[in-house]
Design brief:
The structure holds 2 protein chains of 2 kinds.
Chain A (H helix, E strand, L loop, with lengths): L8 E10 L2 E10 L5 E5 L6 H8 L7 E6 L2 E2 L5 H7 L1 E3 L12 H7 L9 H5 L3 H20 L15 H14 L4 E5 L7 H18 L2 E5 L3 H7 L2 E6 L2 E6 L1 H5 L2 H8 L7
Parallel strand pairs in A: 3-8, 3-9, 6-7, 7-8
Antiparallel strand pairs in A: 1-2, 1-4, 4-5, 9-10
Helix pairs in contact in A: 3-5, 3-6, 5-6
Chain B lengths: L1 H29 L6 H19 L3 H30 L4 H22 L24 H23 L1 H11 L1 H6 L4 H26 L10 H11 L4 H21 L5 H15 L14
The chains are: A alpha/beta, B mainly alpha.
Chain lengths: 262, 290
Amino acid sequence: MSQATGARFEFHNLTKAFGGLVAVNDVTVEAVAGGITGIIGSNGAGKSTVFNLISGFYKPDAGQVLLEGQDLTGRQPHEIAAAGVGRTFQNIRLFQGMSVLDNVRTALHRSLDYNVFHALLRLPKIRSEEKRAEEAALEALELVGMLEAKELTGSSLPYGLQRRLEIARALAMKPKILLLDEPAAGLNPGEVADLVNLIRSINAKLGLTILVIEHHMDLVASLCQKVFAMNFGQVIAGGTLAEVQNDPAVLEAYLGKGASHA
Amino acid sequence: MFWQQVFNGLSAGGIYALIAVGFSLIYSIMRYINLAHGSLIMIGAYIGYAVVTATNFPLIPALLAAAAGTAIVSVIVERLAFRPIRVRGVSTLYILVSSMVVSILLQNLVMVIFGPSFRTLPQLVSDVPVVTHPINIARLDFYMMIVVVLSLVSLNFVLYRTKAGRAMRAVSFNPKAAALMGVNTDRVVSLAFALAGALAGIAGIFLGIKYSVYPQLGELILKGFVASVFGGLGSVAGAVVGGLALGVIEVFLIAYGSSSFSPVMIYALLVLILLLRPRGILGRIVEDKV
């Protein structure tokens, strides 16, 4: 699974309003190519909305999303996925009744070169294509260490494994960038430690550009080279975690006015 | 006599199964009830009638024409009447109303073109039975069962052995995540409507051959509803079981009871199932959608 290492990914001046509420206001983020970039901020700061704008579930009112210089703004979710944007969800969205292997195989939908008519005529092509899909799916499952679970049903997996499966599914598409929406949400400390190792190994092995939204500061501290802090839909600081944590605007947002003078 | 009735029941039930499967397919993927499905059956019967009277096609080309034509109508109906509501993300209740309107519209359209009278298809299948002993198997029933089995096996193959089927199942569980996997959900929905339409078309032309063709033929969708509830709403396998069960029960009620009493019993049974086992016969697999 080698892909173009370290894709450049950035978005400029993204803005989205829902009625009178500006959920995302003029947000610009440049991800570390081949590295891990974090977006932090309290609930309702607009982090997930940013991801939904990137992956096409919402259309931005203004701004631009660029992957390797290619403009993805305003395209359909399946087109954006095909262009190389993989993502996971904060609240896990598996295909619950399908097997682990089928969950991952669905991600190879685009890369399979046959249609319904081939299938109904049972052409040999579909066998070879499906074989290829299975191999690619197994490769992705191996990356996240879930080969043994391939026959299990999605809904029967413990929470930690469901997260891993979501990541495997995203990786099977061989994305250029990976968006992780609160990957540690709902995990116990042991599972969080495993997840940190997994994300680090994926990043190292594939050289994949990763963008992660997270509350767990431990995870952010141990993974992210660069961090952006959001508050009320705006980016209020960007830099290393230490820089961001000491930024007066961040201190004010988290601890209240006057904290920075203390 | 007993086995003859079982055979007659399965023969009628096969058609109910086709209707119920198409209906369930849409329900399990889209989570809405397509009341226009009945009218698609009627459209299939009329396409068959028009094609056969105009060209004298034999059974198989006529079947293919009815299946393809109805599939196209089904896709167009989804495009024009359901998709605009779906993408706006409003309540599926609007789709229910829209499907009812489409149903009435199609019925009236056919009435304008062909008139309200009952029509019969030319005889496409010979009267000579396949066998007469130990039971009498009419040639039409025999062909019908073969076609029903072939259609259901093909559908199963598409759903469980191809990427399109996998995409359909994925959309039924989580449309958003499916889109993120690069699945074009609009296309998957169109394909589902095409498949459901093709099944409705096949059911329609057989009903037309066996009985007659008339604008209210679509009311048979009620049998499809009953069959899918019998089997477990939203389960394709359940729809097959429910359809066959309904056919057999109906034939036995008519043979050993009375034909006027049979519908009463069928609907009483439906109410009973809804009260005692609302998940249907195969209810435990309702979770395994599509």
